[in-house]
Design brief:
This protein is of the alpha/beta class. The chain has helices spanning 3-9, 27-38, 56-70, 85-97, 123-133, 154-167, 180-192, 209-219, 225-234, 238-258, 272-281; strands at 13-18, 44-47, 74-79, 102-106, 138-143, 171-176, 199-203, 263-266. The chain has an eight-stranded parallel beta barrel with strand order 1-2-3-4-5-6-7-8, surrounded by seven helices. Helix 2 (27-38) packs parallel to helix 11 (272-281) and helix 5 runs parallel beside helix 6 (154-167). Bound molecules: flavin-adenine dinucleotide.
Length: 288
């Protein structure tokens, strides 16, 4: 089923993300985690694409496995900046043949060692490509409530986002953020610029101390004082940090839903227990 139809059909949705194994020996482990997360009945699940496309076959295989064995609709990610047009078009065909109807179309990070292929510069070019190869795909795009790290002016980033939506994005998913006011402010600014597709806030449950530095450096997200105090208090005790992190993420979700932002994407990071903690706390809220 297409994500855009799910968003129109359901009042409140929770979706979860998994990432594919980097090495084949971890495949069964990731497959099992993905199936356990699917058993929690999310509205859909997304499968990320390894930076540089090196694990692209695993993305396609995990995505097809989730959809075919659990019936959960899947959103398969695809990046373009390190790939040739041939490779990207092959991946689109693989997704199609696997029955996948939704693609998260991304540029991908510029490799630290520099680029070796120059077939794509921006996600919008990938979106055009997917649409011209097969217009029936439902397409998601990424957006950045605090601005993309490479773009100095938030207003320029929003102008580029408008181009991306014009290229054919059906919905957007945000980078992680830890203060919901950041999201409300962003929504106000993009709606003012005529970007009216559904926006799914991306919520990252931070469940261990190491994740904090990594998540901030990858996303550039601002860390509120409330969050800082939580990590300071519980960061050295893994069990306490995990519980506090799941509750923090759940509180963010409840606040979003209370304010009418009702389609939420959770970066569940192959952790069924974290996904279950969130789903259990929302069991009544998710009833239609
Ligand atoms: C929800 C989500 C999911 C993600 N999933 C993955 C994944 O599976 N695999 C992975 O490797 N990475 C993933 N990423 C990370 C993403 O690949 C990086 O953030 C990447 O740096 C930007 O990708 P993009 O698709 O947003 O790029 P773009 O939309 O192309 O934007 C990148 C930068 O280029 C600028 N720009 C866009 N168009 C133009 C233009 N016409 N002229 C000048 N500048 C322009 C933008 O302002 C921005 O600064 C994800 C990010 C998010 C938020």
């Amino acid at each position: 089923m297409k994500v855009i139809d799910i968003l129109h059909e359901k009042d409140v949705t929770i979706s979860f993300e998994v990432f594919p194994p980097k090495t084949d020996d971890k495949y069964a482990q990731v497959e099992e985690a993905a199936r356990k997360i699917a058993a929690l009945a999310p509205s859909f699940m997304s499968v990320t694409y390894g930076a540089g496309g090196g694990t692209s076959q695993n993305t396609a295989a995990i995505a097809a496995d989730i959809q075919n064995t659990t019936g959960t609709p899947v959103l398969a990610h695809l990046t373009c900046v390190s790939s040739t047009k041939d490779h990207v078009r092959r991946m689109i065909r693989v997704y199609k043949e696997s029955g996948i109807e939704n693609i998260m179309a991304l540029r991908g990070d510029i490799p630290k060692e520099g680029r070796t292929v120059f077939d794509y510069n921006h996600a919008s070019e990938l979106i055009y490509d997917i649409k011209s190869q097969d217009a029936s795909f439902c397409i998601g795009g990424a957006c950045y409530p605090e601005g993309h790290v490479e773009c100095e002016r938030p207003s320029e980033d929003i102008a580029h986002l408008a181009e991306k939506v014009a290229a054919g994005c059906d919905f957007l998913t945000t980078q992680m953020f830890f203060d919901n006011n950041t999201l409300y402010n962003f929504l106000y600014r993009i709606r003012e610029k005529g970007i009216n597709v559904p926006v799914l806030p991306g919520i990252m449950p931070i469940t261990n101390k190491r994740q904090v530095a990594r998540s901030i450096s990858l996303s550039g997200a601002t860390i509120p004082q409330r969050f800082r105090m939580m990590v300071d208090r519980f960061g050295d005790d893994p069990a306490k940090m995990k519980q506090a992190g799941v509750i923090y993420a759940t509180e963010q979700i409840i606040d979003l839903i209370s304010n009418g932002v009702t389609h939420i994407h959770v970066y569940s990071m192959n952790k069924p227990d974290v996904a279950a903690g969130i789903m259990n706390s929302l069991s009544e809220i998710l009833k239609s």
